[in-house]
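Hi U.,

Before I forget, here's the chain from the pilot set. I'm dumping it here mostly so it's searchable later in email.
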Amino acid sequence: MRIACANYPKLKIVFIVDGKNKLITGSVDSLILDYLSNTCNVWHEFNTTIKSESYNIKIGWDSSPPVTPKYFTSVNLIRVHTGVHINRINNILKNVFSEFAKKYKFNFNPEDCLSWIRIYINLNIIDTSFEAQTKVKLERKTDLSIMDNLEIKIKKYFETDKKLLLELLET
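Structure:
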C-alpha cells in the first residue's frame, strides 16, 4: 500500500491497527525515509539543483540481511530500476571508499562498499534516453552531468564523520 501511495501523491489510506487509525500518505520521500529509518543504522541525503535539473539521493547502510544492495529509483517521476544512473553511483561509491581505504591503510575490495547499502535516487533531468518504451532502464546516452559534484559531496560527508567511515571500511 505504501508503494501505491508513493505513486499517487494525493492518495491517503487509513488502516485501523489495534484500534488506532494509521494514516499512510502518498510521498516517495516519506516512504523511503520511513524505510531507511526503520532498517538502516545511518543514512545521509545529497541534493543538487541546477536550472531545471536536480537530484535527490539518500544513501543508507542496512545492518540486517540481505547483504545485497537495494535501489529505489525514479527518473522524471518514472520508476527506473536499472541503468547508467545506478552504475554511476556505484562507481562513485567505489572510488570514494577505495580512496579512503588507501588513505587509512585498509585492505579493501571496492565491491565491499555496496554490501548492505540502500539507495534512493530521484533524478529530474532534461536529456534522458531509455532502452525501450517500457522505460525500465536508463541508457548511456542520458546526460548525467547533474551528478558531477556527487563524489565531492560524499567525500566531504565522510571527512566529517570519520567514525562512520572507519566502521564501514572495517565491515
